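Board notes (copied after class):
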Amino acid sequence: MLTDREVLSTFEMLRNEHLDVRTITLGISIFDCASDDLSRFKQNIHDKISRLAQNLIGTCEDVALKYGIPIVNKRIAVSPVAVAACPFSAPQMVEVARTLDDIAREIGIDFIGGFSALVEKGMTRGDRALIEAIPQALTETGRVCASINVASTHAGINMDAVMLMGRTIKRAAALTADADGIACAKLCVFANIPQDIPFMAGAYLGVGEPDAVINVGVSGPGVVKKAIDRARAMNPRLDLGALSEIIKRTAFKVTRVGEIIGRQVADKLGVPFGVVDLSLAPTPNVGDSVGEIFQSLGLQSIGVPGSTALLAMLNDAVKKGGAFASSHVGGLSGAFIPVSEDLNIAEAARSGHLSLEKLEALTSVCSVGLDMVALPGDISETTLAAIIADEMAIGVVNKKTTATRLIPVPGKKAGEKAFFGGLLGEATIIHVANNGGSQELMSLGGRIPAPIQSLVN
């Protein structure tokens, strides 16, 4: 239970520190909608999702009003479409994506995830069809998100799938060249993807999940920053151990808020409550930045020496506080560092403090990976694939989730700006050294074997 003092501090978080529930995501299994007739399959998923999600928006608004806590996004994640729609061709997969987009629009949600495939050990006909469909599907829809898992600690890295994703990203960027390649902002490539992510673009409902479930994504980088600022103002001599404890206690309170809201929504909808993903998810708004936390802790900017150590501490403290606050913590949980979605991180990239190489180093200890990174439009498919492969290796060897959302911006060069709008923000295009130097390696294909850690069973 929260003490009176903690309740009052939570109200302060709401008023001045950007505390909100970042997303309520309703996961829905569509496996029982399967059919080898495309029209029947589309009707089945329309009927089931509409039935289960018809009260999602109203319920979230009622609960938000009751507690005075904003629920920023209401979303849906479905089973991997590559599995549920495995009999269909790539053009038919595009039709499925359009149907999902129509459903999302009817319900009133901003994103629907699950246009996904799990190919870490190989690809089925359905997997190949879905990946082939991604560029057109994400170009022709506004609310559909895709995720492809190409690696895991137990399976290794499917380099054929990695190379295929390099080509897919380039095609998606070309088809949306007039919008700075925005289709790529709705596509994540993963290693060790969790089954219960509530955050987009990676969200999907895993095979081991219930028929329907509510997963919650909380946030609070502004809350954490203000807590650090207050503590340092009161006692400038606090060391990093003491500051880590403050972050942990703050994460505890934020997580409790998310769990209360999530359980209320799940109860009213009559579905199970799943997990709280307690990731620090920034927005392009001033005061709601993970990058600003680095400055509050004494660094000139995220990206300068010391950033990786500080991010490791931040991630650990957030997870410790969240794990104590809830018995069901899942998803990604930690700290996101999306370049375009965080005003401070975007500025660090613009000023040169944050390079692609330093970003990769930071991903060894953060929750996700190379997230919302704008790259020059002339980057080769091979180089894109090699960057993905490097990121997948970090996840596989460290037994953690990593991902990439890479956006090669057609017609633009390093140092220019890409504009994505809304929560996706804007970013300075980051220089890529040695574009084209990985071609021979990537042409080898095959599967990089799983590390010895995979034998821990």
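Comment from the instructor: The chain has one domain: 1-337. DSSP finds 15 helices and 13 strands in the chain.
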